[in-house]
Amino acid sequence: MSSFPVYLLRHTAVEAPGLCYGHHDVPLAATFAADAATVRASLLPVLPADGPAPLLFSSPATRCQRLAESLQIGPATPDERLLEMHFGTWENRPWNDLPPAEINPWMVDYENSAPPAGETFGQLHARAAAFLATLENLPAPAIVVTHGGTVRALLCHCLGIPLCNAFQLEIGFGSRTALRRQHGRWQVLGVNL
To answer: Quick one: which of 41, 39, 34, 30 has its CA closest to 11?
Structure first.
């Protein structure tokens, strides 16, 4: 039996060149209005015209909330499990300024190693997968506005990809990833749509 699809939307471009940000709110790019209109225009044709209204979920981050509002579908349910990885004391600092003694071990094993006072990619994966489990029996399509790291973690979860390979997946700003639950498993219908 087929279920309704889940559409994972990555937020649109931000103005944070060279900056480490995860939970930190960063400003959206000046192109936000046009970017959001493009996302909305690409999403509307895939939603059923005569079916149940889609469910809308969003990371609490402002960059995600703004995109969710721009979709004009209705209020978004915020869920902290959809937040980007928490980079702890690295948040809002230039990547180039991070101490090599801290960043090098993390780069080797970000699945199990955390930035100081932050979380591991494995922890992000666990909370994102817990959120996705709540969508297994949907009464309507779901739209989930979130972050690149969260989308990567969910793709690893759905496809059984080792988390150490997550960043080999390119997830574009404003892109759509489509999932469907079928025969007890998540299927990936498309990435970077």
So the answer is: 39
Residue 89: helix, strand or coil by DSSP? helix
Q: Name the domain count of the chain.
A: 1
Place of tokens 């230039």: 94
| Per-residue model confidence as pLDDT tens digits over 11-27 | 999 999 999 999 999 99
Q: Does residue 124 come out as left (phi exceeding 0), alpha (psi in the -120 to 50 range) or beta? A: alpha
Domain containing 173 equals 2-190
Domain containing residue 88: CATH number:
3.40.50.1240
- Strand-pairing partners, residue 104, are none
For helices 32-43 and 62-70, angle between their N-to-C axes, nearest 10 degrees: 60
Report the alpha-carbon distance of residue 123 to residue 142 in Å, rounded.
23
**pTM score above 0.85:** yes
The Cα 176–Cα 192 span in angstroms is 5
CB 60 within 8 A of CB 25: no
| CA distance readout (Å), 8 to 25, 74, 152, 189 | 20, 17, 10, 11
